[in-house]
Amino acid sequence: MSGLLYNRKASAALASLGAGGRLPHAILLEGPAGSGKHLAAEIIARYALCTAQEKPCGQCAGCVKVGKRVHPDVRYYGVPEGKKEFPIDLVREIRQDAYIAPNEGTCKIYILEQAHAMNAAAQNALLKSIEEPPPHARFVLLCENRSMLLPTILSRVTAIELEVPSVEQCAQALETLAPDAPEEERRAAAAGAGGNIGRALELLGSAKPSKAAADARQLREILVFGDRYQALKILAAYDKDRQSLLDLLPLLEEGFAQAALARYRRPAAGGQEERLTNRLTCEQAICAAEAAAQAAEQARRNVSVPLLCACMVERIKAAVGG
Known about the structure:
This protein is an alpha/beta fold and 322 residues long. It has helices at 8-19, 37-49, 61-67, 88-97, 120-131, 151-154, 167-177, 183-192, 197-204, 208-225, 228-236, 242-261, 272-279, 282-300, 305-320, and strands at residues 26-30, 74-77, 108-112, 137-143, 158-161. A five-stranded parallel sheet has the order 2-3-4-1-5, covered by helices on one side.
């Protein structure tokens, strides 16, 4: 259950719901991709289908089958490949199947991925099932943003929000989840993912962590000791790759934040950290970190990449006296 390591509120909520022996008929799991929604849905299914006295035991046939995704009473539905919306036909299929008795367990679990991708017609069709569900049916809706669901749906579900861990917590989790990856790449992936453990694991499977880490170190050096043109030349490579820029900017922010902290401890002799510490005041490093964080926020809001990069460079150079 590593995906819920730092989701204490969600873990507590799930334990509370399962402790009574009867789960709500409809649960909404909200959180960004990679935050652990699928794992939370699996935990719910285990609570519902576990045959041991202490649930979920993780060892009975029900728990094992849920973990392997082979339990006949757990059904997964989502947006079909090549489609942008959760089809109403799938909702109708769920409604029909919900009235069929369970195969092995005491109930049937319907896990609806990307529920936020349902249009109004599909949500209204689903509403009929969760308003008056068959006694053996349980619905688990996974969504990234509950505001995209109808108020009538939200009023009939028990909502649980999954939080994204801090970058430091994510890096700690990766020590266990990806022990073979170099520490620098784990930290780069954690920062690039903004603490999102699932996203960080995806980054570790690509070349992005090492490239983002290398570019961030070089960019930090240039912004302090070089000129604007050199910095903008590096950032120009990200003009048409917003996602990679979003991997880079948190690393740049973290680098300047570490430079600020280094003022209060002894940096490694002769390293980049010592050079930056000798060059920057704590206030300058903090201002530079804030500029990188602001640029990342603008990137998430689809502000023009060249524009936000140019503004960030100017702000950082002004902060460091360049």
